[in-house]
Amino acid sequence: MLTLRKKIIVAIDGSPQSDKAAEEAVRLTAASGTKFKSQLYAVMVLPSMKTPSFTDFFPDKPADEMPGWQEKRDRLFYVVEKAAREVDAQLESLVVYGDPAEELMLLAEEKNCDVIVVGSSGKGRMKRTLLGSVSTKISLQAHCSVYIVR
Predict the structure, then answer these.
(1) Model confidence over 87-143: pLDDT tens digits?
(2) Which of 3, 6, 22, 29 could bridge across to 80 with cysteines, CB 3.0–4.6 Å?
(3) pTM of the model
(4) Whole-number Å distance between alpha carbons of 70 and 99
(5) Which residues sit opposite 77 in a β-bridge?
(6) Three-class DSSP category at 51
(7) For residue 72, what are the CA distances in angstroms to 2, 18, 47, 67, 111?
(8) pLDDT, tens only, 37-89
């Protein structure tokens, strides 16, 4: 592996697969050494607003304005933040809204990232065929390398 500065995005959603992906992304970041410090972006994508309906007259607050948000956010980012601190990695944690695959790929382009790290979905073949998979969509459409962690 070349030891040059890289920009790495890791998808965070609180699942065990996401935690494994976070640990692997930190490992990739640390592999660049101290001379060429890589940048790691931990990204959690929350669903965008639902389709318009009668309840839109009484809209819900965004997730990051709900009571208890900070504790939930801290719990979801705990693994990646702890691992990054241990190796002194440069980490930026982000929360965005929208379709997970689309938002991760868009952010990767905006930040000019070299690799997107995602956990495998763990769905069965039938469910993956019917619903699709974030990791599959990213691996087929991303402009940069994709690392899928199982």
Answers:
(1) 999 999 999 999 999 999 999 999 999 999 999 875 555 555 544 688 889 999 999
(2) 22
(3) 0.83
(4) 22
(5) none
(6) coil
(7) 36, 15, 16, 10, 26
(8) 899 999 999 887 655 555 555 556 666 667 788 898 999 999 999 999 999 99
| 19's tokens | 């935690």
Asked if residues 115 and 6 have their Cβ atoms less than 8 Å apart, the reply is yes
In the CATH hierarchy, which top-level class contains the domain 7-48+86-149?
alpha beta
Q: At what angle do helices 69-86 and 16-30 cross, to 10 degrees?
A: 40
The domain locations on the chain are 7-48+86-149
Distance CA 44, CA 42 (A): 7
Residue 95 CB neighbour total at 10 angstroms: 17
Q: Are 80 and 41 in contact (CB under 8 A)?
A: no
> Residues 77-82: contacts with CB within 8 Å, 24+ apart?
77/12, 77/42, 77/44, 79/19, 79/22, 79/23, 80/10, 80/12, 80/22, 80/23, 80/25, 80/26, 80/40, 80/42, 81/42
